[in-house]
Amino acid sequence: MYKNKKEKRLPPPLFIHSLLELLKRIYAFVFTPYKLLDSDVYLLYRKIAIFALLNIFFLIFVFTPFAVYSSDVSQFDPSRSAVT
Questions:
Q1: What are φ and ψ of residue 5, in 5° steps?
Q2: On the CB side of 68, how many CA atoms lie within 13 Å of its CA?
Q3: Rounded to two decimals, what is the model's pTM?
Q4: pLDDT tens-digit map of 12-68
Q5: What's the distance, Cα to Cα, between the start and end of the chain in Å?
Q6: Contact in structure between 49 and 30 (CB atoms under 8 Å)
Q7: Which of 14, 50, 12 lies closest to 30 in space, CA to CA?
Q8: Residue 33: which of 42, 25, 20 has the closest Cα?
Q9: How far is CA 83 from the centre of its chain?
């Protein structure tokens, strides 16, 4: 990729850099509790936070497309549709 070792890599574009900074802030916001917690309680807090995020992503990426698909399919009259 680079012809010699002295060539420096270019910094990432501003958009990618700002996106990474935003993801770092979201990560810190979600996984940093507002109070000091014991290690056991913090692990529970972290597991609940991960579970909540997975549930939100599941709702967005699984149920929403399925609802759109089922609403599109239900608009056709079954008697006029050909069996496939």
A1: -75, -15
A2: 6
A3: 0.50
A4: 677 788 888 988 888 888 777 777 878 888 888 889 988 998 998 888 888 777 766
A5: 51
A6: yes
A7: 50
A8: 42
A9: 38
